[in-house]
Amino acid sequence: MTDYNDNHQAETASEANRFRDEEGRIDPAWLMRLRTALAAAQTAEIVEMIAPLRTADTGDVLESLENPERLALVMALGDRFDYSALTEVDESVRLDLLELVPNADIARGVANLSSDDAVYLLEDLETVDRDDILAQLPAFERLSLKRSLDFPEESAGRRMQSEFIAIPPFWTVGQTIDYLRAERDLPDEFYQIYVVDASYHVLGIVPLDRLLRTRRPVSIEQLMTTDIVLAHANDDQEEAARDFERYDLIEVGVVDENERLVGVLTVDDIVDVIQEEAGEDIRLLAGVGDEEVSDSTLDTVKSRVPWLIVNLCTAIVVSLVIGLFNATIEQMVALAALMPIVASMGGNAGTQTMTVTVRALAMRELSGRKLRRLITREMVVGVINGIIFAILIGIVTAIRFANVDLGVVIAMAMIINLIVAGTAGILIPLTLDRLKADPAIASAVFVTTITDVVGFFAFLALAGLWFGLF
Amino acid sequence: MTDYNDNHQAETASEANRFRDEEGRIDPAWLMRLRTALAAAQTAEIVEMIAPLRTADTGDVLESLENPERLALVMALGDRFDYSALTEVDESVRLDLLELVPNADIARGVANLSSDDAVYLLEDLETVDRDDILAQLPAFERLSLKRSLDFPEESAGRRMQSEFIAIPPFWTVGQTIDYLRAERDLPDEFYQIYVVDASYHVLGIVPLDRLLRTRRPVSIEQLMTTDIVLAHANDDQEEAARDFERYDLIEVGVVDENERLVGVLTVDDIVDVIQEEAGEDIRLLAGVGDEEVSDSTLDTVKSRVPWLIVNLCTAIVVSLVIGLFNATIEQMVALAALMPIVASMGGNAGTQTMTVTVRALAMRELSGRKLRRLITREMVVGVINGIIFAILIGIVTAIRFANVDLGVVIAMAMIINLIVAGTAGILIPLTLDRLKADPAIASAVFVTTITDVVGFFAFLALAGLWFGLF
């Protein structure tokens, strides 16, 4: 019971210190207290408020402040500030703050970080600042960071942490445990041990739980798993992320072009990659690039204008198509009010199919047989939905305008456009994918342009023919 | 050097056995060989081809087959078939296959699974099948699975694995290691050890790496971390996933309503949750629900029709708005061709803002100050984009129709609609979120309906006034 009470007290204490409200947002009163302390440069109060926070929470706090307050916070904490909090904030916040903090302070902070976090902070800095900071680091760390920074952006080599534990296969479990107990310079956290030869080629891995449940005399060679997944340093981080997902991995060794172990990727970094990549598709489909919530107004405008220009061009094309039927519309102005219905339904149906396809392509779900099944399904769905909505809109139109012929014309146009929508929705992303373009970027423009053009054209042309208006 | 050669040979061998092509898809020739073996019931060949595969790869193979072949594969492998492969396939594939396999075989397979995988297979089965299978399991497993199945769907309790390692605080490192070496009934994989009191309240955790680097006499109480994150069994799995992301966790203890430890969540399950949730937003925005690529045609139609019906209704409303201006359009038919441009640009700009907002809400990125900043930014972006595209379309229109007045009218309508688009794009998802509705589901309809109505209305009404056509 004492134990339970202790535990209970600890929890109550943490409730009082808790700085998040019910919704999981930072408590406004807490934040106000911090901002007052920052404005008054009350170092003791600032340290007391920030020190108990987890790294990610400190990151959230930084995001909620203004630039001068962020600087004041970092300066007030001094060497107690954990620079890994900066890996948890938006890029624009990080760059603004690192611009303000003196390089000497950054260098001291970076020296305490694991190599993956250090690279994350350094990679987007201006070259002159980055070199200045690197020059202030101990030689060993400088070289290891430089090597990581030489790998391409968003590669496994950039994301990896250079600290890992490698042992020879002829050791025993006992020797390994003794080594781990004696060695001071181990990674902060690790989940498996790499078994390597003299040239650092990976022979196998030993998960820590297996090491712990095995008796001391057993040899590592007997214990290790040889069925291992490795990443190449030049691989895209997305490829590595797919392996983590597919094979439920916690940690993966990273090897260089000579197959020598140079670092490890851990699942916590990969979770961020998966989150980013998943968000990327949705943003690309909507034409908002790699925007972040904290981007400036100007950056936001810059990121959105190109997509809107493309859409302006396709809207003008659609307008030219409608213009072909001026005479028809003049004779029967009801067509003008009805025509957007056909186009809009096509756009929505096409977007549905396209979204499913883009997502499946992003997750590499489409192999030969599944792909053929999907294409067939989408076309059949187009036909069925076409028939359903042709009947609905046909009846509504015939009643609204007391004109059965008009109902028939719009029904026919609807069937045509929904079949086209299904077909375009699947074939356009697939074609872009085959052409090695990212289907998430360009599919939406193509699909809606096609459903708009076909929607307006089919409806107006059929109406012209049916009513003899040409 | 011998080591390297051995390693190299191992790699060449695995290349020959490799069943994926360059693109990471299942090799068609390999698949054809398997299908032939399945058709001819060549058990030895089937076992030889499937046995070396990882679980996830077996799942991919199952997805590429037809139902009778899937059954043949499971039956040919018999007790060698790892039922956890079924956690890696689409729901429709899993349910189809489990329907075909006799319950007695499923029960034998389920008995060998970790509890989280077992629950995953059982949860979507018909009650009668599920009870039949549970009845064939050993009592201990049956009870533990029943308890997990009693937690709500998509809760931490459903996702958790009931196997974990719990020790008292008064043990030493040495005692713990001896226990791990002696005990036969340990979880398959584990990353941390839970320190509990006699009632299974969690006092702390010990990561395995820390256990390994500490000398035998040190007490667990000294070694354990008390700053721990726990999940409640009734919590939504998304909430738990956010903690994993935020705090870079590998494993989290799950407690029941009495704060007693009942299971653990591991990051590999959470990666799947994150992937699903990220995909959910994109699908909801496009109105395709929780569809999967392998869903049947009928299920697909059912999932898409509701959204299309909503869109049909809003399209009819838009059409009624246009109908108000029949007389205006009749007098100046060029308006009919131009009006979709204003509406379409508004729709696109609104979708951009809405996507950024929905995504930020999903990731809980919007606290008070950031939110106010975002609202201001989006409105200013609306004004700037409004001006840019007003000028562009104004000039194009004035030239195309040799009519400066028409250019002025469309420019004014464009500014109005892009400001409305930015405002609606941010306020609609925020309002839905405040009303506890999922902004990803309904935002798109509201935003595009508003930009359509405002786009057509502003343009046609301004034209009517400017040219005196009313």
From TrEMBL, chains A, B:
* Domain CBS residue range list: 224-282
Assigned GO CC terms:
plasma membrane
Name the Pfam families for this protein. Answer: CBS (PF00571), MgtE (PF01769), MgtE_N (PF03448)
Provide the protein's localization: Cell membrane; Membrane
Keywords (A to Z) from UniProt: CBS domain, Cell membrane, Magnesium, Membrane, Metal-binding, Transmembrane, Transmembrane helix, Transport
Q: Where are the transmembrane segments?
A: 305-327, 333-358, 379-402, 408-432, 444-469
- Protein topology in the membrane: Multi-pass membrane protein
Concerning CDD domains, the annotation shows: CBS_pair_Mg_transporter
GO terms (molecular function) for this protein are: magnesium ion transmembrane transporter activity; metal ion binding
Q: How does it assemble?
A: Homodimer.
Give the protein's function. Answer: Acts as a magnesium transporter.
What family does the entry list? Belongs to the SLC41A transporter family.
- Name the record gives this protein: Magnesium transporter MgtE
